[in-house]
Amino acid sequence: LAIESISTMKETVERLAMTMPVTDMHTHLFSADFGNLLLWGIDELLIYHYLISESFRWSDDQESYEAFWAMSKREQADWIWNKLFIEHSPISEAANGFITILHRLGLDVSSRNLNDYREALANRTTAQQVDEVLRISNVKHVLMTNDPFDPEERDVWLNRGGNKDSRFWAALRVDTLLNDWPNAVVQLQSLGYDAAEQWTERTKVEVRRFLSEWIVRMDALYLAVSMPGDFVYPAEDHRTRMIDEAMVPVCQEHGIPFALMIGVRRRVNPELRLAGDMSMDSDVTAVEALCRNYPTQKFLITMLARSNQHELTVLARKFRNLMVFGCWWFLHIESMVEEMTKFRLELLGTSVIPQHSDCRVFEQLIYKWEHSRRIIGQVLASKYERLYNSGWKVTEEEIKRDLDDLFNRNFWRFLGKEQPQ
Ligand code: RAT
Ligand code: ZN
C-alpha cells in the first residue's frame, strides 16, 4: 500500500532506519570466546584512541605522553573524563558518543558521576553485556578483524575452539603480509611456513597455504587490509606481487572478497601510539586497476580521505565488482556521514554499504549505529520526498527493502551468501 503523506513516509523511514537489524561489516570487536580481546565497559570506552588524541589537545608540556601511558587504565579514563567531559563539553562525535551510550544504557547522564557508571556495570558478565548491547543497538551480525599473527588471538583459534557465537563472523586481516613483509616472514617461519624474504616460488606457495588454512580455520568472510595513501597498483613492488600472486588467487579459490581500506598514514605522532595515525590522499586508480584486472574478484573498498570519496563513488558506477563501504574513522562524524551518504545515494542509488562501525569497545555499537542510522534514514527520506513530489509513492515494504539492502543485503549478496537468520 503506497504511503499517502510525506509526514507518514518520513515517520516510517525513521522508525525502520532506527530499528532494523544491521550487519556491521567491519569492527574490531570479538565474541566472548576471545576472552580479554573483547573490550567493554566504562574505562575501555573512555580510553578509546579517538578520545585519547582529543584529550591531549587540552594538555601541554607539563603533562608528558609517557606519564599518560604509565597510568593504569582507570587513571587514564579519569584523566580523559576530566578533560573532555568536565573541563569542556563533550561536543566531538566520539565524546558525544560516550554520552549516547550512557543514556541508552539507562544511566543518569545528568549526575556526571563516573564512579556510579562504573558501578552500574560492575556486576555484569561479558556475555550479559554482549547480549544487552546487541539488543539495544539492533546489530545482528558483527564482523571481527582477525589476525593470526596476534599470539593471544591465535591461541583461541588453535587451542580453544575459535569463535562459537553465530552472531560473530571472521575477517582475515593481512596487513603484516602487505605492509611489513620482513616481520611477516619471521612470523610465517615461526608458524612453520617455509617462507623467505625473497619472493621465491616456494614462498608464494607457502603464503597461499597460510592464507588458505586460516580462511578455512576462521571461516573468514573476506580478506582485509588497511593501506597507506601512497599505495600504488600495479607497481614493481612487494605489494603488487603479494596481491597478484598470493592474495587474489587465494580469494578466488575460496570465493571471498578482498577488502581494502586505503589512506592511512600510520604514527604521524608516535607518542600517541594507536591514536597517532592520520589520513592521507590516495590514488583511486589503484582500485580501478584491481577491478579491471580481476573482473570476477570482488573488492570491498573504503577510503580515509574526504577528497577521495566522490571519485571512488564514481568508480563504483564502472565496476560491479567494487562495493564501496562505510564512512571510515575520521569520516565517521555527523557532517561527513551526511555528505557522503547523500552523494553515494545520488550516484549509486541504494547499491552501496553506507556504514560500518569500526568499534573497538563493545558498547560503541550503541552510539555509532544510532548516530548513523538517523542520518541514513534522513537522507533516504529526502530522496523519497523528491519522488513523492513527482507522484511516485513508496510503500512500507519498499522502504524496508531499500533499508535492508543498505544495512544487510548488499553485503551478503556481494559475498554471494544467503543472509543468515
Ligand atoms: O578506526 C580505527 O579504530 C582505526 O584505528 C583502524 O583500526 C582502522 O579502522 C583499521 O581497521 O585499520
Ligand atoms: Zn578498523
Estimated share of beta-strand residues? 5-15%
Bound molecules: D-arabinaric acid, zinc ion
Main sheet specs:
6 strands, mixed
C-alpha end-to-end distance? 27 Å
The figure for the number of domains is 1
The ordered H/E elements are: HEHHHHHHHEHEEHHHEHEEHEHEHHH
Poorly predicted runs are: none
Please count the helical segments. 18
CATH class, anyone? Alpha Beta
Overall shape:
globular
Average pLDDT, all residues: 98
Q: Tell me roughly what share of residues is in helical segments.
A: 40-55%
Tell me the Rg in angstroms. 22 Å
Going by helix content, strand content and strand pairing, the class is alpha/beta
Keywords:
TIM Barrel, 9% strand, binds D-arabinaric acid, 421 residues, globular, binds zinc ion, 18 helices, six-stranded mixed sheet, three-stranded parallel sheet, 52% helix, alpha/beta
Protein architecture, described:
The chain has 421 residues and is an alpha/beta fold. It has a single domain, classed as Alpha-Beta Barrel (TIM Barrel). The protein is built from 18 helices and 9 strands. The chain has helices spanning 6-19, 42-46, 49-56, 65-70, 73-86, 93-104, 114-122, 126-137, 151-159, 175-179, 181-190, 201-218, 238-254, 284-293, 309-318, 334-348, 364-389, 396-415, and strands at residues 22-24, 139-143, 168-169, 172-173, 223-228, 258-265, 278-279, 299-303, 322-324. Strands 4, 5, 6, 7, 8 and 9 form a 6-stranded mixed beta sheet that branches. Strands 1-2-3 form a 3-stranded parallel beta sheet. Helix 1 packs parallel to helix 18 (396-415) and helix 8 (126-137) packs parallel to helix 17. The mean pLDDT is 98. Residues 26, 28, 358 line the site of zinc ion (ZN).
